[in-house]
Amino acid sequence: MSAKPDIVTAAVLVIGDEILSGRTKDKNIGYIADYLTAIGIDLKEVRVVSDDAAAIVDALNSLRTKYTYVFTTGGIGPTHDDITADCVAEAFGVALEFHPEAMAILKERLAKTGGELNEARLRMARIPRGAALVANKVSGAPGFWMGNVITMAGIPAVMQAMLDEVAPKLKTGTKLLSETIRADAKEGDVGTELGAIAKAHPEAIIGSYPFIDEKHGPNTNIVVRSRDAEKLAVVKAEIEGMLEKVKAQLSAVR
Amino acid sequence: MSAKPDIVTAAVLVIGDEILSGRTKDKNIGYIADYLTAIGIDLKEVRVVSDDAAAIVDALNSLRTKYTYVFTTGGIGPTHDDITADCVAEAFGVALEFHPEAMAILKERLAKTGGELNEARLRMARIPRGAALVANKVSGAPGFWMGNVITMAGIPAVMQAMLDEVAPKLKTGTKLLSETIRADAKEGDVGTELGAIAKAHPEAIIGSYPFIDEKHGPNTNIVVRSRDAEKLAVVKAEIEGMLEKVKAQLSAVR
Questions:
Q1: Which of A49, A219, B158, B242 could pair with A55 in a Cys bridge, judged by C-beta atoms 3.0 to 4.6 Å apart?
Q2: Whole-prediction pTM
Q3: Residue B217: what pLDDT?
Q4: Residue B18 and residue A223: Cβ atoms within 8 Å?
């Protein structure tokens, strides 16, 4: 690969007191991380903030200027603590308005499930001016896409359906390929040599992740990532050669 | 309670490419959230950043000036991608030095487990000048406490042991008490009335969390939080009264 790889970046903004209090355990960050990596978008940052307008607006403005996309989860339901739409409108300096299509979706849904389009439910039809709706095949009430910010629900099944809706429309970059090498050695025994390889190959990202091997005790997974398959193979081979050598030395000493 | 409650705040900074790539699913955020809530510290923000020095230093400096404490997880092992100690030193503008006690701990540990105190392992004895060590009863290599930043390991069992070490020394505030009320109603059916109660009681934090009830379908948990037990009881009773009334009206209509 000689052309410069395309790099598309993203941040996730999780909105909700319930995550910060520990009451609800987030299941969206890991899902979105896997999803974006698989389609060629680099997740660079995640923030979790409380249901506080100033905190949400600050985070939105900080993240949307730094990354290609910002995905928000949570805070788009029918209750007073659902203020994400208000905050996105404020961050972009646009009005928050009742969206005719969103109202039609809510009415159609309520005709099936029962319930009235009361003040609370109408909150879910308030969309920042200029945003496009993101369909919600699970429970009706839509998310929306405003500028480079994609606002999704917090309930995992709904968030996942919304991500499926927007994914085909996202700009994607050259995928970061990865290879995992099980070292069968302690991290501290191979770290010096691994650091030398990392320094010699700044174009590859090399991570080292210790884990406890039920059979052998402390062990290490080395993960090499690169957008270039050839470079990935070269660095992987170099690490495998290094591991052979270091382990031979260690067994000769011990 | 007439005295003003003490409020102690915290942020968590998760450091690691492996969380952002989706390869590793974070298990520390929820654990720390529960832990801090239980001891009277309000977790206000979480950030996840990659193994990138500028990103880590920026996040540290942003968070440590905003909250009482910052807890970091990850990046304190023996390999080249473990740069948290370097970044904490840089954020505080202090030197990163070999810490005699940390070296003694590593040596003692290696005497038991085998292995040499090589260049890689020596990385784990580099501590920002002025920081206090945080003992690691699981695997030896210590964390550290610098200013209001507490740097812990990323491996959950080690992080948890370190949190147990520092907890008795943390300043804690008046606990945020909470009550959960199962509405047995759809969020959209009770949202308007719940919003009115929230507006009338700004001293209580009222959250509304929809869930799917296996038996009855869409349901809602309403969570009331306050540092004052009496106020909590008053608001809880008001919400329960409202729920009775709204549900009676709904069943009369349908």
A1: A49
A2: 0.95
A3: 82
A4: yes
